[in-house]
Amino acid sequence: MRKPILSILAAALFAAQPAIAQEDTENTIMTKAMKHPPIAEQRPHSYERHGYTIDDPYHWLKDQSYPVVDDEDVLAYLKDENRWFEQNMADQKPLTSTLFEEMKARIKEDEASVPQKDGAWIYWTEFEEGGQYKKWYRKHAAAQNSSPLLILDENKLAEGKDYFRLGAFSVSPDGKLLAYSYDDSGSERFDVHIRDMATGEELPDIIPGTLSSLVWSADSNSLLYGLANENWRTDNARLHVLGTDIAEDIELYKEEQDGFTVGIGLTQSEKFITIATGDNETSEVRLVPAGDPTAEPILVSPRQKGREYSVEEHDGTLYILTNDDHVNFRLATASLTDPTEWKTLIAGSDQFYLTDMTPFQDFYVTEGRENGLDQVEVRSYTEPAKVERIAFPEASYNAGLANNPEYAVNKLRLSYESMVTPDTVYDYHLTDRNLETLKVQEIPSGYDAREYATERLTIAARDGAMVPVSLVYKKGTKLDGSAPLHLYAYGAYGYAVPPSFSTSRLSLVDRGFIYAIAHIRGGDDLGRDWYLQGKLMQRTNTFNDFVDVAKGLAAKGYTSKGSITASGGSAGGELMGAIVNSDPDLWGAVVAHVPFVDVLNTMQDESLPLTPGEWPEWGNPITDKAAFEYIRSYSPYDQVSAHDYPPMLITGGLNDPRVTYWEPAKWTAKLRATKTDDNMLLMKINMGAGHGGKSGRWNRVQETAEEYAFILWQMGLSN
Asked: Please, which residues bridge with residue 453 across strands?
């Protein structure tokens, strides 16, 4: 429980500066029906770059007071769009309610996690019936019949709030204190609180405005964290000594390079604290002793542009995962006394993509993918050739290490699922190589995996690349082109969409849909090069792959043109914008969540302080004419043209700090003014939420029900 997750070296989603909601105006009840959709005013605005003049008549939808959003015209337009959404979805409320209830019925209301030992305590979480948020418990490992101690109740913290999200959760090494942080606006600024777990008393130490994990010093007397600066970047690592004024906190590290973000972690042995800094292609790591965090940091190796690395430690040896000599990474070792001298332990491989390494006291574990499928391998420190690959029961699945907080262990906690197998928790016993099933996700309304079929196939893209696709459908579904098919993908930042299980998805599948995940370039499903082939000047491979998968599935008889629906969010929303511009007649309906669609403008807007960190992913159109021209050629907002578009649902969040609200708003406005069809176009802006939509498990289910109701309605399947 004490080892925070460090994930700063590769952003999972596009980030931009947050907006602050002035009031909760979420989908107010209409007093008068609207006869026509909202029409945003066009106001002259243009700029010149690289010899081009770019007109942007909806530029005004970015509130010039941002991050405060108080422009009455902007707010009026957003509220009108929400009214139009509510008015048009009114007839679908019975369907939405039906979908919500069946989705909810598949979720165990009093769900609890599998307890896990960490030191002297066993920890777990529970939902109570009807509860939106988790409760966190623990009890003494030596007295397992003792009464559970409630150490944190997210429901109480969320009382009276429209939005709540728990951030970091970190127990002190002595087991007495809990440091936790939360965001209650969706703006992704987290306030840190510290609680005495024996008494429930809150310490007076409160640290506002963090955007980081929380790591304790070994003596449990101080806490490391990172503040979000005025430019919405965590460019620092700071140390707070309990009981002292926050103003006296010590800055252990300050990053000066634009676009680099600082993150704090803890090695598995808990001997060292890691202070890592990096962007989407370059990283640099420092180590400080957990017992002396103000000691001079050990710089493992100075940054080199394009080189990524992460660091673990075991008995004075550093283990370094790096892409310095192979795109699929190698594992190297180095000594603490000479950390820059790296010796290969596991060489990079064209076949095996090495993604992680976790050291334990008597062995270490590597994780990666081979042919796009997850692999977990147990390895010996003393016998390098001894490799034990854990076998999983299906041909297509999602698996990996789960919560393993302790260093000295003889079993591993694993997670496993597939598109037909619910989330499963295993303990893998190293002595007999046995997988012990601890828990299988319970579906109260009933589920029989034998009623469903899953496939994994490949579709040829237009340039010859073979794109994997994962499918699930109800057995008996006709594969003669008559079935509707829903296609999902992300395709950016090297994030691989796993072939995982979803109870909500069953609401489409049980109505005759085939559900497909396209493992397109831009993700790293088939290795790091698969990701590189979908970024920068190869970005359009991502869009082409998605379109070609849809066409290929139709050609194979799984569906047909016009019977394909599609969805994606954030960078996946950019994907949705590109495919409705390029192949509008292919889709029966499209849903774009928090879509990153105003790419050209955002990548030139240095007032959005996280933009510099995104240039390694998308290119810098300010200084690079070729990047400007290429981004302009696919940027969904810039490429809207006068043709028929499919029915579309677009969502956004006023407080979204990653994809700012005006991106979906400007795109919707331009689509309304330009498209030549009468197909439904709806936009819903959450006025009190951020990038992930509403908080709370039932609120999220409600939004999924709305999405599926829109899809079924537009496909003529709402009855």
From this structure: 473
Count of Cβ atoms closer than 10 Å to residue 166 Cβ: 18
Using CA atoms, how far apart are residues 356 and 145, in angstroms rounded to an integer? 37
Catalytic residue status for 570: yes
3-class SS of residue 174: coil
Report whether the peptide linkage leading into residue 67 is cis, meaning its omega lies within 30 degrees of zero. yes
Which of 570, 583, 635, 638 is an active site residue? Answer: 570
Q: Which two tokens stand for residue 394?
A: 């299906």
Is-catalytic flag, 656?
yes
CA atoms lying within 13 Å on the CB side of residue 284: 17
Residue pair 459/553 in contact by the 8 Å Cβ criterion: yes
Token pair, residue 694, equals 């509403």
Q: Which residue of the set 59, 314, 519, 691 is catalytic?
A: 691
Give the 3-state secondary structure of residue 439. strand
pLDDT profile of the chain (719 residues), mean per 10: 33 33 40 88 98 98 92 97 97 97 96 96 95 95 89 95 93 98 88 95 96 97 94 91 97 94 97 96 97 97 97 97 98 97 98 98 97 96 94 93 97 98 98 95 97 97 98 97 98 96 98 98 97 98 98 98 97 98 98 97 87 92 98 98 98 84 97 98 84 70 96 93
Question: Would strands 452-460 and 485-488 be described as parallel, antiparallel, or unpaired?
Answer: unpaired
Q: Is 691 a catalytic residue?
A: yes
- Cα 555 → chain centroid: 32
For domain 68-104+446-714, give the fold: Rossmann fold (3.40.50)
515 bridge partner residues: 472, 486
pTM of the model: 0.92
Domain boundaries, given as residue ranges, for the chain: 68-104+446-714
The CA angle 230-234-238, to the nearest 5 degrees, is 105
Longest distance between any two alpha carbons in the chain, whole Å? 75
Which residue bears the tokens 């990666």? 368
Cα–Cα distance, 433 to 413 (Å, whole number): 13
Q: Which H or E run includes 311?
A: strand 309-314
Locate all alpha helices (DSSP H) within 135-235, ordered by sequence. Answer: 154-158
3-state secondary structure 224-244: EECEECCCCCECEEEEEECCC
Q: Which of 181, 486, 656, 695 is catalytic?
A: 656
* Distance between CA atoms of residues 225 and 60, nearest Å: 37
What distance in Å separates the CA atoms of residue 707 and residue 245, rounded to the nearest whole number?
48
Number of H helices, E strands in the chain: 12, 38
Confirm if 400 and 419 have CB atoms less than 8 A apart: no
Q: Is 613 helix (H, G, I), strand (E, B) or coil?
A: helix
